[in-house]
Design a protein that fits this description.
Layout: E1 7-9, H1 22-29, E2 35-37, E3 57-58, E4 80-81, H2 83-99
Antiparallel strand pairs: 1-2, 3-4
């Protein structure tokens, strides 16, 4: 579940998403700004010996997560999905909201 509410930053500001904050811009210019993802309640752990083809989940599990950050890939009728590709899609939705 990758969304704005699951991103941490090591700088405190007025708003959780304030890219014009002068303090945050200073930290960014000095390479002191660090981001991290948290909230692993929807995380899935697969055995290391499994192939990529075995790391699939049932379609209905793809619908869980923060509204607006759930890629609509499995709305097309697929029976299972790749959770790694779903995370990439969610991250793209976050980046789209930040940079566009």
């Amino acid at each position: 579940d990758i969304s704005y509410s699951n991103i941490l930053v090591n700088q405190f500001g007025r708003d959780s998403i304030d890219y014009r904050n002068p303090d945050r811009l200073y930290f960014k210019e000095q390479n002191l700004l660090t981001y991290a993802l948290h909230d692993f309640d929807l995380a899935t752990k697969f055995p290391p010996s499994w192939s990529d083809q075995q790391c699939r989940l049932p379609y209905y599990k793809s619908w869980h997560g923060t509204p607006g950050f759930v890629p609509p890939d499995t709305w097309q009728g697929e029976f299972d999905f790749d959770p790694f590709a779903r995370d990439v899609g969610s991250l793209c939705l976050v980046f789209t909201g930040i940079y566009f």
